Amino acid sequence: MMLESKCIIIAGEEAGPKSNKMGGIWNVIDAEAKSLASLISKGVIEEKPAPTIIVAGPYYGHSGSDWNKGLNRITDMSYMEELEPEGPIFEAIENLKTKGIEVFPGVEVVHDVRIIHLMFKTNDFCRFSVEYKGEETCLANAIKGEAFDLIGLDSMAYENMGNGMEYSHYVNLSYAISEFVKELVTSKDSSSEEYGDKAISEFAASLMPEVHVSLHCHEFGVFYALARLKKLGISVKSVATYHATLPGRSSGHKSIQKIRENDSSWDSGVPVNFAKLESLSGFADVVTAVGDSTRKEIKLFYGIDSIVVRNGIDNDEEEDIEWGKKTDCRDRIQNFLSDKLYAVYNGKVIPPEKIIPIFSISRIEIENKGYPDLLDSLVLLDRMVKVEIDAGHLDDKYRVVCFIIAAHGPKTNPPENFPINLPEEALVGEEIRLQQMIKARGLECSRLTDGSRHVSAVLYPQWISDHDGGLNMRSDELMAGCIAGVFPSKYEPFLLTGLEAGKEATPSIVSKICGFSDALKTLKRLVMGMGGVIVVDNINIPYLESIADYALAMDYFIDTFTDDKVKYNLLCQEANLLAKDMNWEEPIKTYYELLTGTRME
């Protein structure tokens, strides 16, 4: 294979195995690569030859090789084609092997465009001997020594912190990616030096393609790659993208107040070693943020200027809503809940068609993700549903079940009848606290069968998939089957999950703090008044008012679903229109301009 004149590398720590989390960094990296391939295939990117697309990330070859033992990610490249054993990319990979860096390549063809995946194995750098400053040491120590010499990264202190293993992984991965880039950029010079005669060497160099590399790094785990290349004087166009900031995450919902007061102090929970890596974004040519609040945080906490390039989702604008899929998935969820509730509590059978499923999904950051607000609003919703039943406006057999999908990691052996049967020993960490919060509010699903509650919350502490031991549904199927999604975050730089719900034509309720709420102003309305995506102000109004608004919004979707299917379908279409409007095309065009200097129309 002959390397094209332009090479775009998209790098991130989660660029390896695709997880079944929604809205993760992997989704963004994968969508960016595939959307770039789509623009090339459509001729929107007209440059000839077209740029080579490379996705770079970590390789976890077997159980236990992941630095995060709880996640236990295992890289699956079985569906990919092999990389041809020729050309500068292959030669760069071979050269890395001699330096103790093992790379696993694979090729994915999207829209007839090849995407090369390079997965770097970094967990055995301590076993390879190298020479650094005239002394023999292991590769891992040489990397840390060089990082200190180049930019003052104090790995001796950082690796002894509680998250030291994770920190070391990021530095090793960044080093490996930057070393690959270095090999590519210098491949022309290196190849010509093989010839002893100067004239022949110069002639050989003239025949070789000059490699122009652009590097797009997502999140702090790979920002050291940018810094190292800059310090080594390697000519690379670079972009660093923040999806959030570490000080902002630690402050959570208090970060808005910090921005308003220009308070740049960090809370005590900020991991200093990671924050140091995050600050290395300043070495990039351009820094981008996925939303305006994140842009303000970057300036506040690091003094770094950035521009906003929002996230999108991979959504075919021509694709019609799959109404049949939505019906089938809803039937599966309703039948599952009816059967499991009866099996576990041996109470009255709840007719499947009378069960109304809604969902919320995110990381298990209880306060940041607004789960207390959601639970309090579900208590209010229960009272509202009861009043409607007593007034004869709603069938007394209706039951509302809100799945709260939040987990520390995947569970390999969930209990029988999971998650309706959820013994405490099956839970860990914040999962236990969240389940206790559900019980403290009387929202446990056992109260549905005796009629003492009409609304319940069901904790789903699992990464959902078609083999998760519970619903056994993919994330898109779960979202398609629920009648609404609720995302009450108090700290949310963007919120991809709201768009993912819209992609499945499922209405949603989002907090004002989420990064895409401003885009709703341009949404084409199909229904007057409250639409398919409802924004609740959780910034400026009192707490009681905001939880009341969440409850009223959920009640609105429930009433519309039960009483006016035509109107409900229009709300579904509205949510879908927003997702289609916020596709990846414009963000990818912006990234392409930033990475290559080529102006896009």
From TrEMBL:
UniProt key word Glycosyltransferase: yes
Segments forming domain Glycosyltransferase subfamily 4-like N-terminal: 215-316
GO BP annotations listed: glycogen biosynthetic process
Record keywords: Glycosyltransferase, Transferase
Protein's UniProt keywords contain Nucleotide-binding: no
Gene Ontology CC entries for this record: cytoplasm
Protein name per Swiss-Prot or TrEMBL: Glycosyltransferase
Source species of the chain: Methanolobus tindarius DSM 2278
